[in-house]
Design goal:
By secondary structure, this protein is α/β, with parallel strands linked by helices. The protein contains six helices and five strands. A five-stranded mixed β-sheet has the order 2-3-4-1-5, covered by helices on one side. It starts with 25 loop residues before the first helix and ends in a 9-residue tail after the last strand.
Length: 194
């Protein structure tokens, strides 16, 4: 079963929430709001909650519960990365904040919606590490009852047979040729001759 990918309206060009909060289903809104403490809601406002609710709301109920259980394991800044609704994102960050781990989770969400994702990493080892992270995210969701997060594959590729989505990780040398879909450029500042 394929699900429509939830994307924001880019016509306005501003960073307003994905949807009007009044139009969102109440179950994901309550669950998403529960993820954030009061101080976090003041920092991030309603945009993050709306983004999470819009994406989670696109899935069937059993999948929603598994995704929300998985989301509850992430730090707030990781939630912001994993549920980023924008077509293009550039992250200027500090070291060791879990960005690769978060984007591997986002790739799993995209694959659960049937989308292919190519992750371009610095080298072979780093590419395999992204697939390992994605496998961990998917395995956690499966343990929470998800059927869309079931995977097959090897150290360089994960296939989601119930949706047709897949995650492919490649080193930056010659990577991404002949692939289409979502692209994550991991540690791009360190790629030689990008």
């Amino acid at each position: 079963m394929r699900h429509a990918k939830v994307t924001p309206d880019f016509a306005t060009g501003d960073r307003s929430p994905v949807h009007d909060l009044a139009t969102l289903p109440t179950w994901p809104m309550r669950a998403c709001t529960g993820l954030l403490q009061e101080r976090d809601r003041n920092t991030y406002g309603t945009a993050l909650v709306a983004n999470i609710a819009a994406i989670v709301g696109a899935f069937p109920p059993n999948e929603r519960a598994a995704i929300m259980a998985w989301a509850s394991t992430l730090y707030l800044h990781q939630l912001d990365l994993a549920f980023d609704p924008w077509q293009f994102s550039i992250l200027n960050k500090s070291r060791k904040i879990g960005a690769t781990y978060s984007y591997a989770g986002a790739a799993v969400l995209w694959a659960m919606m049937g989308d292919p994702t190519v992750v371009v990493s610095l080298g072979e080892d780093e590419a395999c590490e992204v697939i390992d992270d994605a496998r961990k995210h998917a395995a956690f969701m499966v343990s929470e009852g998800s059927t869309l997060a079931e995977t097959e594959g090897n150290k360089k590729e994960l296939v989601f047979p119930n949706t047709g989505g897949r995650i492919v990780a490649r080193p930056h040398t010659g990577a991404g040729r002949s692939f289409s879909g979502n692209v994550i450029l991991d540690e791009f500042a360190y790629h030689q001759d990008p």
